[in-house]
C-alpha cells in the first residue's frame, strides 16, 4: 500500500506565529489557485517573511504552501506567462499513482422535465462533472469515480468555467487534498490534482465545495465507490461485482444505484442566472462564508421548495403508469433472475429526509452505512449487518447519508415489486412526494 507523507499533529502552541496563522486562517477570504501564485511568475509575496523574520499577517496561503511546494512552484513557473496556465503542485506528490481520474465541470446544459417548472419551462439547467476523456458520458449525477481500497489515487480537477473544487466526501486526505474551498483554496485555470488513498470498500461521493449549498443543488456531485481489492476490481456501475459483508467477500450479480435528489427549479432559473455562481455567499471574515437568513431576500438560499424529484438522474413523473412517479429505467429499477443477488447503493443527495419502504416480499440486509461495512474488523464488536424486517422494512436517511443493501432473490416471488421513497420536508416532516422504484424478479 502506498504511503503519503503527512503531519501527525501536535498540541496547539499559541506562541508559534505559524500555528496561530493556521488556527485563524478561516477568517480570511478564499484564495484560488491563481492567488497562491504571483502574477509576475514568482511565489506570492505574502509567503515571504516580514522584516523581523516572522510570517506575514494571518492568511491561509501561508499555511497551505509548504517549502517543498514553494520550490516546486518556482521551478515550474515561467516569468511573464499567463496565470491561466499555472498548475498548482500537489504537496508530497507521488509520481506513479495506482489510479488516475480527471473531471471537468459542465455548465449551461439543460435536461427535459416531465411537467413545467416554476417559470413555466419544460427543461431545467443542471450542472455536473464529467470525464473530459469520455466521448459520451453521464454528467448528472457526475461520472462515477471508482477505485479499490488501498490504492493511491490522483483526481484532477480541470475547471471549465470559474473556480470550483472536488471534495471527496468520507475519505481522510490532507487539507490541501480535501477540496473544501472555504477551508483551503479554490481550483482555477490550469487545474489541480488531489492525491488521496482509496478508503475502506464502500459507497462515498464527491462534490464541489465552493458554494456548497448552491452547487450541490445544481448537480455538481457524483458517486465515489471504493471496491474490495479483489480480482477484476474496480467494477463497472450496475454489476456484477463483489462487496464486503462483515469480514467476508460476497459476490453480487447486479448493482442498483439509487441517488435520491430533489430540485427547486427557482434555484436553477432565478438564483443562479441572476446572481451567478457565488449566489448566497457572504463576504470575508469568520462566519461570513454564506449569506444569513434575510440578508438578501433576492437570493434566499434558506428557502428551498422542491418541485422535482429525481433518482440517479431520472425525473419522477406524476403521470407515469401504472403508478404515479414510477421509475422503470433499468439502471434504477433492475430486472433479476430468481436466485441472483442484488446490491443496492443509496445516497441521499436531496435536501429532504428520505424513507425507503420495501414490500413484505423483500427483506434486504443492510451491510454498510456511510462507506463503513458493518461487522468488519476492527469494528466488528460495535456493529453487524441486520435485516430490514427488524425495522419494519423501512430505512430513513438524511442529506449525504449512504446505505448499502444486499438482496438475495432466492426466496423472492416472481413478479414486480415496488419500493417507495418518501421525500419529507426536513423541518415540518410534511410528505412532499412518493417516488417508486421497482425490482422485477423473473422465475
TrEMBL record:
Pfam families: Cu-oxidase_3
Alphabetized InterPro entries for the sequence: Cu-oxidase-like_N (IPR011707), Cu-oxidase_fam (IPR045087), Cupredoxin (IPR008972)
Superkingdom of the organism of origin: Bacteria
Alphabetical keyword list: Copper, Metal-binding, Oxidoreductase
Gene3D superfamilies with a match to the protein in the record: Cupredoxins - blue copper proteins
Span of domain Plastocyanin-like: 140-225
Protein name as catalogued: Multicopper oxidase domain-containing protein
Organism listed in the record: Pelotalea chapellei
